[in-house]
């Protein structure tokens, strides 16, 4: 994981620059790297930055079925703020995001610590914990929709064991359906958090722990007071990735609940898609997309800031 | 870390037992949905409504799989997910190859031929890893229309390449930063050019990162749903979209066994990749996601 830090080891410049001038075809050779990068830069400027700007412009218009360019200022944003379904979607994202991130962190770190105790068959267990991450969220949604089906799934199975009064019908209950998204998403992503933590644990210097052991600290205490503080960067990365997954969550909602019952499990991503592509509300959909971008930037900027700071200090 | 001193006291033994108990319970939580999916996909419908989730198939049948592959209805059409499975491959393979090639060249240019502003170029491109794709959907739809490739496989390939190169560039850049510069500098002094150095010095040591990049891109693009559903027509859909349509097509009796077989079909390629190259899969996830 240490290797993945961008922008380290920048000592190449002087040598490279010096060598370039001495080659016979120096002119072309000096420009080749830039020529090679140019298409990617152009693509990024157009398809990322240009499109972001374009969507922003659309969000200022009254576009419905097709993009039109009669501007209505921030009218779409005030319509969005007055839209009850948008508030349901945003509240859902808060509930889903917070629970998803917290539960993944707890399960992931716990499994990593338990796996780190010289376990036999560690490789096999790790493979089992992590495989859901290789699946599409659509597959995950289809499987969990089946497991959570009250007539044939887990509820029916437990009732069949003799617990007649057992109820687990969250997926059909508008108040509880959002938690089924949390269950399925945690199932898919917690193994990945385990892998992140395990990599972090393996990177910790053994001698710190040995010293703490000699001082007579108990194992849980060592993990809580000595090891966990060393893993702060891992926690930070994990939170960042999980929050990012949460904001982008679209496929899982589509496959598991379809946003229902009603629109009880709508998230901003499904709200945006529904309005922009099926309800002929391009202006409103664009405004919601811009707010999603704002949400991502709100978690990204502090992260990048702390990354840059720690690099300067380290 | 592992510093457990194995004393054979009863308390220690109890602790070990508890530890394995928790780990095995967790393993069941992750593995059981897959087991249920697999068992359901080979049960006849009568057995599904009569038995329970975990009951072992009494009369296993392969019929749901053949139906899911070739006959099940996905929306208006009833020709299974087989065609869409190949569609996915037709989209994934070119998109993976192109984005990995571009990423390798970018990473090489950014690390071994640094120039003024190359760090800025990298930061500029890296941002593409982070945006929520909803923010590009509408302009993309219009642009694909202008290019005359809306609802085509070529259009989907373009979309996946465009938004994949941020990740592949990141992978290769971070890998090449760790390759010593001495060889490259010596080659430059000998008059070797940009592509020659790449071909003779960098590429021969790039196997691990190529595998990481290919696996990452393969799983990302195979599992994509958002672009697939937004930019495809009925004959160019990837398998994830077809699976979702199949599950949500309501004609007559719900055939859960067919649903599960179709889900298995859609999941198999990435599962196979994961089982065969799990080590690289994890490396891609950590490298790609720590920064992306």
UniProtKB/TrEMBL annotation, chain B:
A Pfam short name: BPD_transp_1
Keywords: Membrane, Transmembrane, Transmembrane helix, Transport
ABC transmembrane type-1 domain span: 85-277
Biological processes, Gene Ontology terms: transmembrane transport
Recorded coiled-coil stretches: none
Annotated transmembrane regions: 17-39, 84-108, 120-142, 154-176, 197-218, 260-282
Localization (cell): Cell membrane
Record's GO cellular component terms: plasma membrane
Membrane topology recorded in Swiss-Prot or TrEMBL: Multi-pass membrane protein
Entry keyword annotation includes Cytoplasm: no
PANTHER family assigned: ABC TRANSPORTER PERMEASE PROTEIN, GLUCOSE IMPORT SYSTEM PERMEASE PROTEIN GLCU
Stated family: Belongs to the binding-protein-dependent transport system permease family.
Protein name: Carbohydrate ABC transporter permease
Organism name: Vreelandella sedimenti
